[in-house]
Amino acid sequence: MRENVLKIFAIAVLGLFWLSGCQTTDNQTASADGQETTGSIASPVTGPGPGQTPSSTGLQGEDPKDDLSLGKKHYRENSFGLAEQHFRRAVEMGPKSIEAWIGLAASYDKLKRFDLADRAYQQAIRLAGPTPEILNNQGYSYMLRGDRRRARAKLLEAQARDPGNPYIQNNLDLLDDSLRQGAAVK
User: Fold this and answer.
1) How confident is the model at residue 61 (pLDDT cuts 50, 70, 90)?
2) Does 98 or 47 have the greater pLDDT score?
3) Are 74 and 66 in contact (CB under 8 A)?
4) How far is CA 125 from the centre of its chain?
5) 101 and which of 86, 95, 111, 124 could share a cystine (Cβ 3.0–4.6 Å)?
6) Is residue 7 part of a domain?
7) What b/e string do you get for 160-179 counting C-beta neighbours within 10 Å, with b at 16 or more?
8) How many CB atoms are closer than 10 A to CB 71?
9) Number of domains present in the structure of the chain
C-alpha cells in the first residue's frame, strides 16, 4: 500500500515538475493605466496523471479524445467554458487525478467562478499536498480577485517550497506591480 502511494506521489511530482515547464506566462491583463501585464497560472499538463482511470487506449490523458486531453486543448485555446466541462467530466471519471483537479480549478479561475476554484484547489491539495504549483495557482487566483494579502501569502508559501521557480517569482512581481499601480490584476 505504502509503495503504491509513493509511486503515485512520484508520478505526481514528475507531472508537476513537467507542469512548471508548461505554465503559461502569456496571460495578458490590463492594469489600471492600460498597460498589459503578464501573470502565470499553471496550464493543465499533458500526459497521464496519478489516480486516473484507464480508458480503452491506456490512462486518461493519453487519448487525444478523452476529457482530460480535451480539457487541456480547450484551455490552451482560451475556451475556458469547454475546458471546464471536460475537466469536470475528467474528475468525475478519475476523482484522484490531480491534473484534472488543477485544470478544473484553473478553468474556474478564468471563468471567475472563484468559489468553485477554491473547492477544486482544496481537492488537489488533499490529493497531492500543498505543492508549489498549486500554491502558485491559488496565489494567482487571489490576485484575480483583488485579494492581495492572501495572494502574497500563497505566493510566498509557494516560493518557500520552490525558491527558484520563475513562475512564482513572476506572480510576485506582478503582485508588486499591481500594488504600486493601485490596481487589481484582471
Assistant:
1) low
2) 98
3) no
4) 11
5) 124
6) yes
7) ebbeebebbbbbbebbeebe
8) 30
9) 1
Q: Which three cell numbers stand for residue 147?
A: 485579494
Residue 47 lies in a domain: no
The answer to whether 144 and 186 have CB atoms below 8 angstroms apart is yes
Identify whether 98 is part of a domain.
yes
Please report whether residue 186 resides in a domain: no
Domain span at 22:
2-41+53-181
* Other CB atoms within 10 Å distance of the CB of residue 65: 9
User: Which CATH number belongs to the domain containing residue 128 in this structure?
Assistant: 1.25.40.10
Give residue-wise pLDDT tens across range 96-134.
Answer: 999 999 999 999 999 999 999 999 999 999 999 999 999
User: Which residue is associated with the grid cell 496565489?
Assistant: 139
DSSP code for 54: E
pLDDT band at 64 (very low <50, low <70, confident <90, very high): confident
Q: Which alpha helices (DSSP H) does the chain contain, by range? A: 2-22, 67-76, 80-93, 98-110, 114-128, 132-145, 148-161, 166-181
